[in-house]
Structures are given as C-alpha cells and as structure tokens.
Amino acid sequence: MSRQFFARYVTGVLTLALCAACSKHTTTAPSSTPPPSAANAHAKLDVTAVTVTGETHASGYSYRTVVHLKETAGVAATISSIDLKFLSGGATVASLHHSQPISDTSNVCPASSAVDTRELLAVDEDPSHAYATSVHVTVTFTDSTSVVATAEGNADVDALSAPPAPVTYTLSGVIGDESTRRGIDGARVEVVNGANAGRATTTDNTGRYVLDDLASGSFRLRASATSYDAGEQGVAVPANPQADFLLRKSTGCFYTLSSVSQTVLGAGSTGALSAAPSAPSGCTWTASTDDSWITLNGARSGTGAATVSYSVAPNTGTGTRYGSITIQWAAGRASFYVYQYPSRASCRPTMTVPLPPNAWQNYLLLDDGCYPPAVSAIDVPWIQILGTHGGGKFLLVSVQANSGAARTGHITFSDEGKVYLQITFTQDTGHCVTAISPTSQAFDENGGTGQITVTAGATCTWTARAVTFSVTFTGSAQGTGNGVVSFSVAANIDVTGRSGALNIGGLQFGITQKACQTSVSPTELTAPAAGGTFTVTVSGSATCRWVATSVYSFITVSRRDELRTGPGTVTVTVSPNTTGQPRTGSVGIADRSIRVTQS
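User: That's the sequence. What structure does it adopt?
Assistant: Structure tokens below.
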C-alpha cells in the first residue's frame, strides 16, 4: 500500500475539483511565544483565526488551510515558515511544512497589521487514515533582531459524512412534429446503450423533456411517440447538453417495440423481443441483425404482432460490446439494442486488502470482468458495501475500527451459483500497541534512516505498515510485545516537500521530508503590449524533477508539461495584447508561480 502527500500553494488559475467540503473558521486558545526581552521592542505575532476546509475524494482526504495573522507589538514580523499538523483522535494523520506561506516574494506581516496566508493544500492519499478532526498551526517568525519566535493556534475540522457522490449531468430537449414543428405531448425518450442504458422519461405538454443523473460518455438516444416513426441520434454528455428530435407521422402500418434495450452478462443468455402493429391486420415485418454474436431463433418475418427470439453468445473479450436487432416494415424500422458485459473470466478471482485497525472507507477498483457486481455475500458484520459508481466499476466499502484481535472478513460475488470474485480484508489487532517513541521524524531531501520503539502487551501481535511512497522497512515489520521498527526514507527528487506516516497497530508515526532544492529566476515578468520572449532559469540539484506549465492562452512555455531533471531554462512567450487593457497571468515553473504582467 502506498501513500503520498502533496503540499503546494493554490493560485487563481489552478483549482482542484473535489467534493463534500466543510469548513471551520475559528481557533481555540491561540498563543504566541515572543522573542526574549531586549533593549529594542520585538515583534509579537498572534494566530487570530484558522480557516480549514476538508474534502474527500477516491483515494483519501485533502485539507485547504488559510491562517489569519496579526502583529500586535508594532514591529514588522518576517514569517519563516508555517507548520500544520492534522489530527484525528490525537493521532497525526497529515502534516505540512511551508516556507513561503504568504507569497513567493514577501512573507512579512507589517507592524500593527494583519495578513492572511495563501491557501495551503495538503493531500492525504492513504485510504487507511481517518478524517482529521482538528488542525494545529505553528508559525515561526523573526524580526529585525533576528531572534526566532513562534505563534500557535488550533481549529476544528467538521466531520465528513461520506465520499463524494459521482458527478452526473443533465440532458434536455424538445420532441416535435416534423410537419407542424409543435411539441409532442407524452413522447418517450430513452437511452438505449452505454452506461446510461435504460434511463428514460416522457415529454410534457410542450414536448420538452429532461434526463437527470446521467454519467458522462457517449450513447444512442431514442425518441418515440404513438403514431410517429421513432428517431435516434448519438449524444455525448456533458459535451451535448441538449438533443432535439423532429418525428415524422407514421403512414400505413408501423410497429412499436415493447422495450428498446437489454443488458446481458458476459456468460451470454437468451431472450425475446416483441413489437405491436398499429393495425390488427395487413402489417408485415422482418427481423435482422448484423452482429455475429447475436443469433435470431425462429421466425424472422411475419404478419401482425412480431415476437423475435434471440440468443447472445458468451463475451470472451475484456471489454463491453454493443449490438442490435432491427425490426423493419414497409414505411420504417426500429432497433432493439443489446449491451453485454465482459466475461467473468477476465476478472481476477481474488483480491486482498490489508488494513490497520483504524476505521476505513473507500472505493475499490474492480477488473473489467468483475462488474457489475452480482449476488454478494459478506461473512462478517464489520464490513459493509455502501454502493457503486461507474456502472459498478468502483465498489464503495466501509470497514469498522478493530478494538480486538486481528481479524479477517470476505465479500464474495457469484453468478448462477458460481463464485467469480472474493475480496479478503485483513485487519490488524487493535488497542494493544500502547505507545510508540518517537512519534515523528523529519528528513532533509537526501532521506535517511529511523527507528521506532514499540510498546505493546506481551501477547500483542502488531504490524507496521508503510503508508507513503519511498519508505522501506530495513528489519522486520512485525512483532509480538515490545519491539523496534527500523526503516529508511529515499531521497526526495520532487520540488515539493512531502509528508507520510507509518501505521503501527493503529498509532501513527509522522514523517516529513524537505523538497529537492531548486531556485527560479526571475520570479516576475513584465511584457510590453507588443509581447515578447523571456528566459527563466532553474538552478539546483542535478536530481530534482520539475515541469513548466501555463494555463493562460496568451502565455506559452517551452516544453510545456514535460518532466525535466536538473538545472535548465524555460522560454516564456507572451503574445501581443490586443484587448486595449492591461492583463496579468502566470506560469508555473518547478515549485514557483512566475507572475506575468502585460501593458
């Protein structure tokens, strides 16, 4: 299992699309430790409030924090760094160190003034972690005397109820008469294939319809109404938010299908479709298919009501497939769609999820052949299936905290009495590791080694789990009773610091590591209205990885979004400004935001 923390500032041009946010805007017991007394006055900085927003996503949690500061002694304070520690039930679940919390160019709180930090973002991608309930803030600052002091504050983080609901979209339109252009009341609109297959609605008295709660993707949309020939068109949401139809009045005999689609499991099946004629006699029909894996059984043509039997062969591929059966008559035709999932043979039959004793809730990604989940059985009460997403591709599972001995539970899926997938959850012993020492360790960009002393009951069996990247156990990761855990942290070659943890019997050992050191120059660019070309230099370690990017249409960078290593240069090109108004933008290079101003 791996874990990764990211810390970066958030600018106005970069947003992180996350859901289920909550925030808290007050602190408890803010305090400030002033520099030692001296002949001259010293800066005194207070944490007046902390705004913290928690968000949940598929792989963990993220926390956005703004710290509100005020200088109260009449002396300007230079902020050296801000450290954030996110806690859950006393255990550290995330941490962040930021050396430029105000801006890239100035980190000063003026005398007798207030200042807010930029938005500080920490992302916890360890699914075993509980959601943080509070954050502790430590601000390190100096004044003109260079004496170091700190200010501290705390804030609560409101609890989150569940992972975010899947993003869905709405499709609307009008079903009208081809000749009169008026809306058709009571027309049926239905999705006939794809992830939204089976979603249907009817029009109101103006001919308007709305289909809500659609997953993104492409599909066929069918519109039909009594005494009209049906119409179909391809639609992609969210790219196409509206789809209109003009239907032609049926002439002579026409047929109406009892249903327009069928979903079939990978093992294949048989079925039948029926079509009713508009008149009791004189109507004839034929049935056909162009798909080799669909076989028509029995009559393929006839008069009056139509009943067509068919069989679907097993899907031996690893992806879903679509086919159709066409019912045709003298003046028109209609299609019946078949949607078949992949073979269960492409589903790995077993999956193991090892967990610490902490409570856990997350989405599990299933193989193509494993979804949609069929009949399931859970053999323990502490595991629950809360839902699915993406047509069943993601399975939302909740595991309760363990306060006793190590335990194992299973979710078993079967089709027609045959098991095709078993997910095994193993959860470590809870509440028998009583202490670890130390509880955290900081590393520079070069990495290093560490040791943790574990205090536990004589019969307590525990496991140390690395829940972040580049952490390796150099000795045994398991023990009974008291013991020692040895580990190493690899060098950080990224230009952002990172945080992580080890989980030992439910207790968290926090790890922080400095960023790979780089410098960027210049940090501001000023371009004339005619535009221009600039060179930005990146200096630092030969092992540091970084990228250059821009999201502004009038600014381009050389080798955009290409991963580079070591020192280098970036060419920034600003196009002519024809708007008649000054404009600003930025480019991201390594861990810096380069402000671009154009007259």
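The longest strand covers residues 45-57.
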